[in-house]
Amino acid sequence: MAAENFGGFSLMECISTKRSRRDRNIIMKPQIWENFPEDLFKVVLARLPIATVIRFRIVCHQWNNLITSQSFSQYHAQVSQANPWFYLALGDASYKVTLQKINYKFVYDPFTKRWYNSSTFKIPALPVSSAGGLVCSFDHRNMYVCNPLTKSVKKLPTGSIMRQRHSLMTMNKSGDYRVLRFSHSEYEIYDSVTKIWGHLGSIPEFVQSNLYFSNPVSIDDTIYFKDIGLERIVSCNTSTGVWAQHFIQVPLQSFFLRLAESDGRIMLVGMLRKNDARYVCIWEVQKVTLLLKEVDRFRFSKSYGILRGLTCWGNNGLLLCCLRSYTMYHIVTYNIATRKWVKDHVPNGSKLVEKNIFGTAFQPCLTAMP
């Protein structure tokens, strides 16, 4: 499978997409384009899918300079990308090895259904959360905030907590972000404005009683976790440091429950067993009552085999569910607006099935700076 390098990524296509002879023979007449206003070029390019913009950087030096210019960045920042991308990493089941050695990193574009090999991203860290176009990751020593598209990376300063259990991230509308991390008994919050760790304090007893949480989601300044052992959601406001717990009533015969975010709403995603059938089911957690409202369900094919686990990430109305069987990783995306399910698979998923998968959803953005 050939890889095509551009913009810091290697594009991996599961199916060959050779251009036709007709496409290769098209001649772009200079007299048509030489007087085309450059500002209009920038306006048009800024509205194209982000993968196309990255490709255009290798057309010539002039196009690369245009796309990397400050004025183009301003145009691009004004256009919101409709679909999130997903940053996934696979590593060994051993906790210590996982933190020190991740050999497989991918960025998935659900719009084009393309996988970008990000193994050249040399930081030995796990993605744990995201906010906007930035991804937060950590290893056994340090924490990082990075933009996976531009490969710009910032290593956060050392804080007071040496051995952390969880790390999470929020971002406000101006692009400033905060990172929350906590251990068995303490927590602290990093602020990108002050560039220091603050809010050092003790974790409430209701959080200390069970520190086994699924992947977190962030909405504005607040981070939410699903307690794996209890039917509750725990939250922390990163601007005030206030913790809270919210009890929910999960459906009977449901399992592998995970949280996801969609346009400011908290979604609960998991497996549902009904009679002899199994479904991937999506519920919306109502803000006031905390009651669950079913959004949709997708029947889990028996051909997938016995399910070993489910992980879900979501952003901007699109959810990605990663289903792990004994033979393969399976990918299913769901568009909440169109109510459409799309099946896909992880590259070399059968070879990586013994690896644990980590990931997060982020908004592709060329201008997000850590």
UniProtKB/TrEMBL annotation:
Repeat in keyword set: yes
Listed Pfam families: F-box, FBA_1
F-box domain span: 30-75
Keyword annotations from UniProtKB, A to Z: Kelch repeat, Repeat
Cited CDD domains: F-box_AtFBW1-like (cd22157)
Keyword Protease: no
Superkingdom of the organism of origin: Eukaryota
Record-given protein name: F-box family protein
Species per Swiss-Prot/TrEMBL record: Trifolium repens (Creeping white clover)
